[in-house]
Amino acid sequence: MGGLEVIDPRYGALLERFVVGLDGDERVLSVVVSGSVAAGTADEWSDLDIQIVADAERYDEFLGDWPAWLAAIEPTVFARTPVAPFIINVVTADGLTLDILVGKGQAFEFPEASEYVVGMLSGVRFTDVSLALEYAVAEQLRGMAGPFISLVQREEHLRHMAGVPHLLGLLTTVFLAELDAPPPGKHWNRSFTDEQLAAVAALPAVRATREDLIAFGLGVNELLVSRARPLYPGFGLEWPHDLARVAADRVRDVLGIETGEWLY
Predict the structure, then answer these.
(1) DSSP states along 111-139
(2) Signed CA dihedral, 155, 156, 161, 163: sign only
(3) What is the pTM of this model?
(4) What are residue 97's DSSP bridge partners?
(5) Distance between CA 199 and CA 220 in Å, rounded?
(6) Among candidates 222, 209, 229, 208, which has minimal Cα distance to 251?
(7) What is the pLDDT of residue 109?
């Protein structure tokens, strides 16, 4: 791990072009490296984050003019602000990826993640890992009783596969509860153990067929349930037996598969 010296050497020249290119712009107070390179946590696959601090009184003018000053500094094949108006995502003509953050009068620092985002579909965030765990389990069981079966029966295999990130988000919440760990940062491997990562790697492959989606769906359900249920007493939670029983009954009645021995 390190700074500018460990990433693609072309980024050093790219940074210099930004420093020189903006040196004469009176609206710019400073151009500095940010992100993992500045923190000294970058590796050879990290890209470059640059923070431009603009004069507060001319901030809106400078930010609104970003296509012009960016084009004058570096040829790009992609440049947009999809995350926030003050963050510019860039792909250069040489294939380098760059994130530019424009600060208003001072450097901006992103706070460390302090809330658990449970799955990809939840609009709720949690500061307490026990509440995140309880939500993840209930959401997993709800999905098993409803959408899992409906999508399989309708043969909506592509749509079913689109929900896989959500299921993995629920599972990783259980992993964090096992470790009583904070929300993960940019590098997820640092938040989870080798054993947890191996457990996910051992899940059945996800392919757009009825058989494979059933195998994966039941596999991720069993992994989540088997690891979450022993955690409940320690967090003062009560296992949702009724919901688990209904989910098991639905899977048995519609798909002809018994899950009661591990589900509730």
Answers:
(1) PPP-SEE-SSS---EESSHHHHHHHHHHH
(2) negative
(3) 0.86
(4) 91
(5) 10
(6) 222
(7) 76
